[in-house]
Amino acid sequence: MTKDRQLDELVAEVRKITVTAEQLGEQRRSFAYGNARIENERITREMIAEADRKIMADDYNLYRDRDSISFAEEAGLLNDPDEVARREAENSVALFNLVDDVIRTWLDRGGFKLHKGVFVHLHWVAARER
Predict the structure, then answer these.
(1) CA 125/CA 123 separation, integer angstroms
(2) pLDDT per position as a tens digit, 9-46
(3) pLDDT (tens digit, 9 = 90+) per residue, 84-125?
(4) Contact yes or no for 101/64 (Cβ under 8 A)
(5) 72 φ/ψ angles, rounded to the nearest 5 degrees
(6) Sequence-distant (≥ 6) Cβ neighbours of residue 34 within 8 angstroms
């Protein structure tokens, strides 16, 4: 069996797996903690859990709301290390959600093309006020 065929078979098997909301939440928090903690050792799992509760309660779809992006406001710099850590925790969760939504949207459309708009939107999500 060729490697391409093995890969195709594995992909076909993976497509049959249904991820529960609880499993996705665990993955989101783990991903967010691991990525944010690398940048800022003040970030705790509790901060990530709180950010996850806050962001998921907002029930927004960041990728599909991209038409509302505005760069008219200038963001201020944060000086409090704890506030920086809290914001980075929120950003990690929000960015996971955005990437997950991008992937699901493009899988539904049958393909993906990386373009600068995706990067602009990722930046907007990270820079926006919550």
Answers:
(1) 5
(2) 887 887 888 888 899 889 989 999 998 898 899 999 99
(3) 898 889 888 888 888 888 887 877 777 777 777 777 877 777
(4) yes
(5) -70, -30
(6) none
For residue 78 the two structure tokens come to 């944060």
Coil vs helix vs strand at 127: helix
How far is the C-alpha of 74 from the C-alpha of 114, rounded, in Å? 27
CA-to-CA separations, 76 to 31, 63, 73, 84, 127, in angstroms, rounded: 27, 24, 9, 12, 10
Query: What is residue 68's DSSP assignment?
Result: G
CA 43 to chain centre: 17
* DSSP-H helix ranges across the chain: 3-14, 21-39, 45-58, 81-109, 116-127
User: Residue 59: left (phi > 0), alpha (psi -120 to 50), or beta?
Assistant: left
- Using DSSP's 3-state secondary structure scheme, residue 110 falls into coil
pTM: 0.61
Side-chain-side CA neighbours of residue 106 (13 Å): 13
Please name the amino acid found at residue 31: F
